[in-house]
Design brief:
- With 245 residues, the protein is mostly helical.
- The protein has two domains: 60 residues; 169 residues, no CATH class.
- The chain is 72% helix and 0% strand.
- The protein contains eight helices and no strands.
- α5 runs parallel beside α8.
- The two termini are 32 Å apart.
Length: 245
């Protein structure tokens, strides 16, 4: 998946090149460096401005650290990708964060495939379509709430303190206090893994749902509630304590 910031930079580059072609083309403005003093000054100014704009854009889009959104303001798929990516540099979290990012990519694809399948089998106005769509949206909501819970925990995660607590040079702390601090950080890691495990289960349920929908021939609206996968999804939602109506 290509990062949108590179697409934006490419688009800006193409736009600036096109502008320079128009400005320096004899068929348009015909600005010429080496011609009259005014033409040369305008041409040099445009070239310098173009270079500065591209350098600033490259710095802003690629090299400048993004401003971190508060977790409560994270809403879009892209927001979650950006928020989780900030923790890839934390060695102890790297594997889990990479899994979370892959899960984000997978749920987006599965959701698109499910709605494409629904559109092929039902009309959007049909009750069957609305029922399936509602369940997909609810399970997706649970998926993102799990990620939000992870981000809330990681917001208080101190990498330097973690390494200090888990390292060998911690003799200044009493064994009881050291163990208590270790337990706290182990809870961070366990919670993250458990939440990712739940999201992996959600992805599996969506696969099963897609398979069951593809097998449908004719059925009544009441049959939807009896579908094994629909029942499993309903149970998963009710049993997950982080789910909120």
């Amino acid at each position: 998946m290509i990062d949108t910031k590179y697409i934006k930079l490419l688009g800006l580059t193409i736009g600036i090149v096109a502008l320079n072609v128009v400005v320096f083309s004899p068929g348009f403005f015909g600005v010429e460096i080496g011609g009259s003093a005014l033409s040369t000054a305008v041409g040099v100014t445009i070239l310098v401005a173009s270079a500065l704009i591209l350098l600033y854009a490259a710095y802003t889009l690629i090299f400048k650290p993004p401003v971190a959104l508060p977790v409560k303001q994270i809403k879009t798929h892209e927001d979650y990708v950006e928020a989780l990516s900030r923790y890839k540099r934390v060695k102890v979290l790297e594997e889990d964060i990479l899994l979370a990012l892959r899960q984000l990519d997978r749920i987006q694809k599965k959701k698109d495939t499910l709605f494409e399948t629904l559109n092929q089998r039902f009309e959007p106005t049909e009750l069957s379509f609305k029922k399936f769509a509602s369940v997909i949206q609810e399970i997706e909501k649970l998926f993102y709430l799990n990620l939000r819970s992870i981000l809330n925990r990681l917001g208080a995660f101190d990498e330097e303190e973690f390494e200090s607590v888990m390292g060998a040079n911690t003799t200044k702390l009493s064994p009881a206090l050291l163990q208590e601090r270790k337990n706290i950080y182990n809870e961070y890691l366990s919670f993250t893994k458990d939440s990712l495990g739940t999201n992996e289960e959600i992805l599996l349920k969506l696969d099963k749902l897609l398979l069951e929908i593809s097998r449908l021939d004719s059925f009544e609206i009441g049959d939807i509630e009896k579908m094994p996968c629909m029942q499993e999804i309903d149970t998963l939602i009710k049993q997950t304590k982080y789910y909120k109506d």
